[in-house]
Amino acid sequence: MELQTKAAVLYAAGKPFEITDINVVPPGEGEVLVRMAAAGICGSDEAVRTGKRPHAMPVVCGHEGAGFVEALGEGVARLNRGDFVILNWQPACGTCAVCGRGQPNLCTTFPERVTKPEARFFLKDGSPVFSYSHLGCFAQRVTVRQECCVVVDKKIPPEVSCLIGCAVTTGVGAVLNTARVKAGESVAIFGMGGVGLSIVMGGKLAGAESIIAVDTAMAKKKMALELGATDFFQEGAKVRNVDYAFDAVGSPEVVRKCLDAVRPGGTVVCVGLPAMSAEYSLPAWKLVVGEKKIIGSLYGSADPFQFFSRLVDFYLEGKLPLDRLISKTYTLEEINAGFEALRSGRTGRGVIRF
Ligand SMILES: NC(=O)c1ccc[n+]([C@@H]2O[C@H](COP(=O)([O-])OP(=O)(O)OC[C@H]3O[C@@H](n4cnc5c(N)ncnc54)[C@H](O)[C@@H]3O)[C@@H](O)[C@H]2O)c1
Ligand SMILES: [Zn+2]
Ligand SMILES: [Zn+2]
């Protein structure tokens, strides 16, 4: 059986996406078919598009999505047709030692999956099309593992809910789960994309007293201040003595600035994904005599099966204005304009609405 779908296919790094009619594999054992409702445009997709993060091609990008379960494969017990799900790009096995420690975001089966990309789509001539992050949300229909599907309350609009699939979990989770920022503390955030703006919202939710936003693009100032930043700087050199500094850019130079920005005993949280070959050059002396800490944060150190619903509740209770993160919605056909907006540095999150 072949299932048809329209998808934005990336045939080679550096090229635009091409809207193509392709086939999606029917759901096999433990898998489900999801009809996409909305998908966000994330900096990680742009890294694949540009080739900063090399990937097997052609590929359907998109790893920040939400949709409705359309069909169930064999052995799927905890999902039903019609369920509204936010897609989780970090499916965990639930059985490895790391999962056993309660850290499914670090599941040891996952790195192996990343280096072995899967083809869940096929061109009409039968040649494979890979799915980024084992999802491929820039397609009308996707076949994914049941572990990728987190059922949430249908009251949250799809274009808002999809953001929880990456930016919001990553950003708010970095504050609440990784750093565990407490009321009255101070934070600085470098990079005001969807992830950095979510860190701003997380800082406000945690009750941080001072939330300093930094971005090279002045256009980000208004949105950062609206979402809870107390200050905005175009250049981070002046930021000093904060309890936590977050890199939401993914650059060793920014991590260095974060190290200068934190007080003695403060913590740098690395959230942005650097190039896979990147290395840090840091002042070793300052690290030791200042007792500074540098920690990584993957997917907000979260268990999506608990955290997604918590974030939905925060939104529905008016504690997280996630809708204000969206600067524009696009049709799938307009996807290249959405990526152009991301590159321009002028906008918050762009969302594809199916
Ligand atoms: N750790 C994780 O689990 C995780 C999850 C999702 C995304 N990411 C990564 O987070 C990063 C941000 O993602 P995004 O979707 O928000 O990207 P984005 O492209 O929307 O935003 C990046 C922002 O950084 C700004 N910027 C660039 N250079 C800067 C500098 N030197 N100083 C200050 N600001 C600068 C840009 O103007 C832009 O506003 C990416 O590297 C992405 O791959 C990590
Ligand atoms: Zn992402
Ligand atoms: Zn595991």
Please explain how this structure is put together:
- The chain has 354 residues and is α/β, with parallel strands linked by helices.
- It contains eleven helices and 18 strands.
- The strands form three sheets. Strands 3, 5, 6, 9, 10, 17 and 18 form a seven-stranded mixed sheet that branches. It has a six-stranded parallel sheet with strand order 13-12-11-14-15-16, with helices on both faces. A five-stranded mixed barrel has the order 1-2-7-8-4.
- Helix 6 links the parallel strand 11 and strand 12.
- The site of one zinc ion has 5 residues, from loops.
Query: How many DSSP-defined strands?
Result: 18
Q: Determine the N-to-C terminus distance.
A: 24 Å
| Structural domains: how many | 2
In CATH, what is the class of the largest domain?
Alpha Beta
Quote the CATH topology of the largest domain: Quinone Oxidoreductase, Chain A, domain 1
Q: What is the radius of gyration?
A: 20 Å
Low-confidence sequence ranges: none
Q: Major sheet: size, sense and barrel closure?
A: 7 strands, mixed
Question: Helical percent range?
Answer: 25-40%
What fraction of the residues are assigned to beta strands by DSSP?
A: 25-35%
Which structural class matches the secondary elements?
A: alpha/beta
| H/E topology pattern | EEEHEEEHHEEEEHHEHEHEEHEHEHEHE
Shape estimate: globular
Mean pLDDT: 94
Bound molecules: nicotinamide-adenine-dinucleotide, zinc ion
Number of H- or I-type helical stretches: 11
The CATH fourth-level homologous superfamily of the largest domain = Medium-chain alcohol dehydrogenases, catalytic domain
> Which CATH-level-2 architecture of the largest domain?
Alpha-Beta Complex
